[in-house]
Amino acid sequence: MAEKPQPFPTRLRDGQWEVLIAPPEMWLRCDSEADAKTIARSIVLRHELLEGVQSGAGVESECRRTADVLAKYRIHFLSRWFAGQCRE
């Protein structure tokens, strides 16, 4: 089993939530704290799905929400991956 990753760092800068998606300084500006936290947690959720740690209706709902938020910010390759996990 691979080591569990940590969520991407988030910050509030000039009234705007951001997620550090590529260190050292590639911050993605988000419309809300909820969007930032969903994107930040996506790396953890992906790991849990690949390792079989989570399953069930709750995780399916989280997958759908994550897919929708990633699509909103044009992170389409990951959005499609999470959407595919919802159907399995």
Folded structure, characterized:
The model has no long low-confidence stretch (mean pLDDT 92). This protein has a three-stranded antiparallel beta sheet with strand order 1-2-3, with helices on one face. The longest helix has 19 residues, at 33-51. It has one domain. The protein has three helices and three strands, in the order βββααα. Helix 2 packs antiparallel against helix 3. The two termini are 21 Å apart. With 88 residues, the chain is α+β, with helices and mostly antiparallel strands.
Brief digest:
The protein is of the alpha+beta class. 53% of the residues lie in helices and 18% in strands. The protein has one domain (10-87).
Identify the notable features of this structure and list them briefly.
88 residues, globular, 3 strands
Which helices and strands, and how do they pair?
Elements: E1 10-13, E2 16-22, E3 26-30, H1 33-51, H2 57-72, H3 76-87
Total number of helical segments?
A: 3
| Order of strands across the main sheet | 1-2-3
Overall domain count: 1
**Tally of DSSP β-strands:** 3
N-to-C SSE string, H for helix and E for strand: EEEHHH
Average pLDDT, all residues? 92
Morphology call? globular
Parts with pLDDT < 50 across at least 5 consecutive residues: none
Q: What is the terminal separation in angstroms?
A: 21 Å
